[in-house]
C-alpha cells in the first residue's frame, strides 16, 4: 500500500468566538494549514475533503461539509462530512489517509469544525448529551460529565488514586496550554485550584472538565509523490488504528478502561511496527481528567492502576520521559468537538517539525488519540518525522 | 363463597412535614386535627405510589401478577387528566393484557368505589387507591397529603364484604376542581358542608348491616370531621379512631379512607365488623361493611410514624408549587413507540440471555453484549436487587434539560451503574438513585429497583426503574 504524509496542518484559535461562523473558523484553519506547507500548494490539486463535525450546534444538520469547502473556494471538490461525536475528525483523518493509500487521491483535506459557545446553556446540554447512549444512559439523568464521573468513581474505588491525581492532569495541561497562543483556557492552575473547584459531577470538579469551544482545524494528507514535491520535512502517517465500542458505558465489560482505545492502539502499534507506548510524545483525549488516566493505561503507556504514578512522578510532563498533551490538551486548548481530532494532528505536525509551543526534545515519533463520546469510537494515529518506512 | 380482602399493601412517601411548620409559615392553621402529613417526592405521583402499594400487597400473598383478573385504580390526581392509567399499572406489575381494568377519578369516593368493584369482580383482583391532591398553598394545601393503598381481593378471604350501601343527593361546591385546574377547592360554606357530609355518610351507615363495628374509616378531610359525622350515628370514638389516619398522613384524597380501613382491619379480630364510608364532593356517599381481621397487611402505624421531615421551602419545591416544569432548550427525545417497546426492560428489568454463551444483555436487543453473537435472546427477568458499580452526583446546573424540572424540585441526584446478577451471570444498567441522600451513595452499595417517574416527553409522563439504597 502507498504511504500517506501530512504535509501541512493548522488550526484556528480555539476559544469563544460568537461572532465567527463555522465557515469562517474553518477558513482560518485551512489558510494556516496551507501556509504551513513548505512548498506552494495549488489548491486545484486537492482531490477530496473529509470534514468532521458533531453538527455545529444543530444549526446545520446536513451538508455543512460542502458549505465549508465551497466557502474556502474548493469549488466542486467532493466533500464528506464525518460524524463520530468527539472523534469526528480523527475519523476524517483516517478517511483521508485511506483515500491516499488506496490510490484514489493524491492530496486530501482532512479537518473539522464546531461552533458551541453562542448556544444557550440548556440547548448545549441537550445537544451534547444526545451523542451518548440516549434511551437508557442519558435518561438515567446523566450528561457526559456524569458518565466520565462514573468512570472516575469506579477508578478511585479500584485503584490507589485520589482526586488530586485527577487535578494533576489539569495542572499539567493548563501549564502546557498557557504556552499555546491558540488555547481556549491558556492560563495556569494550581493543584489546590483544581481540587477545590466546584463539583461538576463528583468526583470531577470544574477543572477536571474541558470547556465547550469554538474552533476549526485542518490537515493536508498527501501521497509520497506529492509530499516529495511540496514538503521538505513531511510527517509520515505510520499508523491509523481505529475501533468501535458500545456507546453506553453500562454496555461495556469495564468501567475503568475504554476497550475501543485498547483495540485501536493495538492495531496502530502493529501497523507502525512498534511496541506499545514506543513514542516520544502523545496527544490524548482528555475531555475529562479521568480520561487522560484511562488513556495512559489503555494505550499501554503504563500498567493498570499506574497512571497516577506517571502523573505524580512527572513522567508525562514536557521534560518527562513521555510528554502528554503538550498542546494543553482538550482541557486547556479546548474541545471544539469536530475540530479536536485534527487539532491533535496540528500539535503532532508541529512537534515533529520542531515548532511545538512546548517543544519535546528530539521528537521523532508521536501519537494522537481521539475518543468519540465515552468510547463508542476511537482513533489512534502514529506519526513519524520525515520520509520513513523504508521509502526514503 | 367468602369473597373479600386477602391482603393489603401501603405506600406512604418518605417525605413528611409537620402541620405546625405549614401554619407557622402562613400565620394561620388550615389543617385542623392534622399533626403531620406526607408529601410525594418530585418523581412520585399517583401512578408510582399505586405500583408501590400494589407490589407491597402482592408480596404478602401467594398470588402472581399474571393471575390478576381485575385491577381498579382510584385517584383524583391521575398523571393525565384524561387517559386510563390502570393499563400502565398492570403493565408495570407484570400483569396479563387480558386483565379487566377500571380507572375512577371523579372524587375521593373513588377509593371505596374500586374496592367494591374488585369484590364484585371474579378471581384475584386488585383495588388500588393512590392520591396526592394539591390545593392553594395559602389554604387548601395545608391539610393535603399523599398515600397509596392496595387491597388484594380474592375468594376465601379472611376479611369478607358483608354489605354495601350508597347515598346520592345534590351537594355541589363541597369539594371540587374546575376543568383544567390542578387545585382542589371548596366554597367554604361551613354549615352546608358539614351537613352535606354528615347527612350523606350517616345515611349510608344507617343502611349498612353492621353490628357494633370495632373500626370505622369515615370521610376524613381533616382530623375533626369523622368524629363530628360519627356523632350522628352509634359509632364509638374508639372505632372511629382506629380508622382515622388523616392526622398523620393528611388528606390523601381517594386513598385516605382506604388507608384508614387498612389500619382498622389490621387491628380487628376474626369475628369483628369494620366499616368504611366516604363522601364524594357533589353529593355521593358509599359505605362498605366487612367481617374479619387481616394479617397480611403492613404495620400502618409504623409507616405513618416514620419518614423524613422537610422544611416548608423544601415542601414547596418538592411538590412543584414553585417550579414551572418547563424544559428549556429541548430535552432528549425518545419516540413513544420506541419507549413502549422498551417497557419490559424499564419496568420489569427484562434482559436478554444469549443462547450461545448464556451471558446477559440489557436491553434485550441486538447482538449479545458478551460474545457478540446474534441469536434470539431468551427474555429473562432480573432480580430487583443489585450493587452500585459506579456513581456520581449530578448537581444543580449539571442535569440534562429534561431533568431540570425534577432537579429544581428535588435537588441534586445520584446516577449510577448498577450490577444485577442472575444465576451467576452479571449485567449492568444505568440508573438514577432515588429516595436517598445522593451524597451518601457509594460504589459497592446494595440497591433495589423501584418504579418512578423518569420525565415527560411531548407531554406524556414516562416511567421506569430507579434504584433505592437498601
Structural summary, described in words:
The complex is a heterodimer of chains A (392) and B (470). Chain A is an alpha/beta fold and 392 residues long. Chain A has one domain: Thiolase/Chalcone synthase (Peroxisomal Thiolase, Chain A, domain 1). Chain A is 35% helix and 18% strand. In chain A, the strands form two sheets. Chain A has a nine-stranded mixed sheet, sandwiched between helices. A two-stranded antiparallel sheet of chain A has the order 5-6. Chain A is globular and about 55 Å long. The model of chain A has no long low-confidence stretch (mean pLDDT 95). Chain B has 14 helices and 22 strands. In chain B, the strands form five sheets. A nine-stranded mixed sheet of chain B has the order 5-4-6-8-1-9-13-12-11, with helices on both faces. Chain B has a five-stranded antiparallel sheet with strand order 20-19-18-21-22. Chain B has a three-stranded mixed sheet with strand order 3-2-14. Chain B starts with a strand and ends with a strand. Chain B folds into two domains: 4-319, Thiolase/Chalcone synthase (Peroxisomal Thiolase, Chain A, domain 1, 3-Layer(aba) Sandwich), CATH 3.40.47; 336-469, no CATH class. By secondary structure, chain B is an alpha+beta fold.
Task: Give a brief description.
Chain A has helices at 22-36, 64-71, 88-102, 121-129, 144-158, 163-177, 191-196, 224-230, 259-272, 289-298, 307-312, 329-332, 340-352, and strands spanning 4-11, 48-52, 79-82, 107-114, 199-201, 204-205, 215-223, 235-244, 281-283, 365-372, 377-385. Chain A has 392 residues and is of the alpha/beta class. Chain B has 470 residues and is an alpha+beta fold.
CATH topology of chain A: Peroxisomal Thiolase, Chain A, domain 1
Helix content of chain B: 25-40%
Mean pLDDT across the residues of chain A is: 95
Shape of chain A: globular
Number of helices of chain B: 14
Topology pattern of chain A, helix = H, strand = E: EHEHEHEHHHHEEEHEHEHHHHEE
The side-by-side strand order for the widest beta sheet of chain B comes to: 5-4-6-8-1-9-13-12-11
Seen as an oligomer or otherwise, the chain set is heterodimer
Compute the number of structural domains of chain A. 1
CATH 4th-level superfamily of the largest domain in chain B: Thiolase/Chalcone synthase
Main pleated-sheet profile of chain A: 9 strands, mixed
Amino acid at each position: 500500500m502507498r504511504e500517506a504524509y501530512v504535509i501541512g496542518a493548522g488550526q484556528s484559535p480555539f476559544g469563544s468566538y460568537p461572532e465567527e461562523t463555522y465557515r469562517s473558523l474553518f477558513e482560518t484553519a485551512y489558510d494556516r494549514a496551507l501556509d504551513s506547507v513548505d512548498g506552494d500548494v495549488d489548491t486545484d490539486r486537492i482531490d477530496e475533503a473529509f470534514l468532521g463535525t458533531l453538527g455545529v450546534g444543530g444549526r446545520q444538520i446536513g451538508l455543512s461539509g460542502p458549505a465549508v469547502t465551497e466557502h474556502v473556494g474548493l469549488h466542486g471538490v467532493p466533500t464528506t462530512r464525518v460524524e463520530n461525536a468527539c472523534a469526528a475528525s480523527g475519523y476524517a483523518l483516517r478517511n483521508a489517509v485511506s483515500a491516499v493509500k488506496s490510490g484514489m487521491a493524491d492530496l486530501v483535506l482532512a479537518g473539522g469544525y464546531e461552533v458551541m459557545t453562542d448556544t444557550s446553556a440548556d440547548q448545549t446540554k441537550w445537544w451534547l448529551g444526545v451523542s451518548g447512549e440516549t434511551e437508557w444512559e442519558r435518561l438515567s439523568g446523566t450528561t457526559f460529565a456524569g458518565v466520565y464521573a462514573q468512570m472516575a468513581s469506579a477508578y478511585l474505588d479500584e485503584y490507589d488514586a485520589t482526586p488530586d491525581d485527577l487535578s494533576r492532569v489539569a495542572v499539567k495541561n493548563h501549564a502546557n496550554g498557557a504556552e499555546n497562543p491558540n488555547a481556549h483556557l491558556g492560563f495556569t492552575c494550581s493543584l489546590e485550584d483544581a481540587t477545590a473547584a466546584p463539583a461538576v459531577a463528583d468526583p470531577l470538579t470544574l477543572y477536571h472538565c474541558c470547556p465547550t469551544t469554538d474552533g476549526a482545524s485542518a490537515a493536508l494528507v498527501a501521497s509520497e509523490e506529492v509530499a516529495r514535491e511540496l514538503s521538505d520535512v513531511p510527517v509520515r502517517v505510520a499508523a491509523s488504528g481505529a475501533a468501535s465500542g458500545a456507546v453506553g458505558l453500562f454496555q461495556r465489560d469495564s468501567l475503568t478502561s475504554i476497550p475501543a482505545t485498547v483495540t485501536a492502539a493495538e492495531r496502530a502499534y502493529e501497523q507502525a511496527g512498534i511496541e506499545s507506548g514506543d513514542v516520544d510524545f502523545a496527544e490524548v483525549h482528555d475531555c475529562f481528567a479521568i480520561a487522560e488516566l484511562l488513556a495512559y493505561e489503555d494505550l499501554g503507556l503504563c500498567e493498570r492502576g499506574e497512571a497516577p504514578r506517571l502523573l505524580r512522578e512527572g513522567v508525562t510532563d514536557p521534560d518527562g520521559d513521555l510528554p502528554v498533551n503538550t498542546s494543553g490538551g482538550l482541557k486547556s486548548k479546548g474541545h471544539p468537538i469536530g475540530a479536536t481530532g485534527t487539532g491533535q494532528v496540528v500539535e503532532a505536525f508541529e512537534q515533529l517539525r520542531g515548532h511545538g509551543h512546548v517543544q519535546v526534545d528530539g521528537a521523532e515519533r508521536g501519537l494522537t488519540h481521539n475518543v468519540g463520546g465515552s468510547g463508542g469510537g476511537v482513533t489512534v494515529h502514529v506519526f513519524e518525522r520525515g520520509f520513513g518506512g523504508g521509502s526514503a | 363463597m367468602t369473597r373479600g380482602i386477602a391482603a393489603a399493601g401501603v405506600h406512604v412517601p418518605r417525605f413528611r412535614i409537620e402541620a405546625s411548620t405549614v401554619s407557622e409559615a402562613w400565620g394561620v392553621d388550615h389543617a385542623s386535627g392534622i399533626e403531620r402529613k406526607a408529601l410525594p417526592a418530585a418523581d412520585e405521583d399517583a401512578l408510582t405510589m399505586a405500583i408501590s402499594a400494589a407490589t407491597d400487597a402482592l408480596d404478602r400473598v401467594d398470588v402472581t401478577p399474571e393471575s390478576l383478573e381485575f385491577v381498579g385504580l382510584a385517584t383524583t390526581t391521575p398523571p393525565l387528566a384524561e387517559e386510563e392509567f390502570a393499563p400502565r399499572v398492570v403493565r408495570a406489575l407484570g400483569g396479563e393484557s387480558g386483565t379487566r381494568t377500571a380507572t375512577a377519578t371523579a372524587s375521593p369516593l373513588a377509593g371505596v368505589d374500586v374496592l367494591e368493584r374488585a369484590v364484585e369482580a371474579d378471581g384475584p383482583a386488585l383495588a388500588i387507591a393512590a392520591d396526592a391532591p394539591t390545593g392553594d398553598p395559602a389554604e387548601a394545601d395545608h391539610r393535603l397529603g399523599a398515600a397509596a393503598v392496595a387491597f388484594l381481593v380474592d375468594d376465601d378471604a379472611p376479611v369478607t364484604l358483608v354489605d354495601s350501601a350508597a347515598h346520592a343527593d345534590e351537594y355541589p361546591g363541597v369539594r371540587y376542581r374546575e376543568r383544567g385546574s390542578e387545585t382542589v377547592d371548596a366554597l367554604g360554606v361551613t354549615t352546608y358542608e358539614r351537613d352535606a357530609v354528615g347527612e350523606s355518610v350517616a345515611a349510608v351507615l344507617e343502611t349498612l348491616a353492621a353490628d357494633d363495628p370495632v373500626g370505622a374509616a369515615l370521610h376524613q378531610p381533616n382530623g375533626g370531621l369523622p368524629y363530628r359525622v360519627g356523632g350522628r350515628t352509634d359509632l364509638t370514638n374508639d372505632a372511629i379512631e382506629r380508622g382515622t389516619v388523616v392526622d398523620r398522613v393528611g388528606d390523601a384524597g381517594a386513598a385516605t379512607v382506604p388507608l384508614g380501613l387498612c389500619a382498622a382491619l389490621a387491628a380487628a379480630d376474626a369475628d369483628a365488623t369494620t366499616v368504611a364510608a366516604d363522601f364524594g364532593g357533589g353529593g355521593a356517599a358509599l359505605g362498605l361493611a366487612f367481617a374479619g381481621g387481616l394479617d397480611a397487611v403492613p404495620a400502618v402505624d409504623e409507616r405513618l410514624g416514620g419518614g423524613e421531615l422537610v422544611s416548608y421551602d423544601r415542601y414547596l419545591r418538592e411538590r412543584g408549587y414553585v417550579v414551572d416544569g418547563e424544559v428549556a432548550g429541548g430535552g432528549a427525545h425518545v419516540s413513544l413507540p420506541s419507549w413502549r417497546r422498551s417497557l419490559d426492560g424499564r419496568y420489569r428489568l427484562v434482559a436478554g440471555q444469549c443462547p450461545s454463551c448464556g451471558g446477559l444483555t440489557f436491553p434485550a436487543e441486538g447482538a449479545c453484549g458478551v460474545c457478540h453473537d446474534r441469536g434470539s435472546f431468551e427474555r429473562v427477568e432480573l432480580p430487583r436487587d443489585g450493587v452500585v458499580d459506579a456513581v456520581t452526583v449530578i448537581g444543580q446546573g449539571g442535569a440534562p434539560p429534561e431533568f431540570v424540572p425534577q432537579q429544581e424540585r428535588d435537588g441534586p441526584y445520584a446516577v449510577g451503574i448498577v450490577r444485577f446478577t442472575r444465576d451467576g451471570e452479571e449485567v449492568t444498567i444505568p440508573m438514577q438513585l432515588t429516595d436517598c441522600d445522593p451524597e451518601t451513595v457509594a460504589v459497592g452499595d446494595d440497591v433495589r429497583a423501584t418504579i418512578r417517574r423518569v420525565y415527560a416527553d411531548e407531554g406524556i409522563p414516562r416511567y421506569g426503574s430507579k434504584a433505592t439504597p437498601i
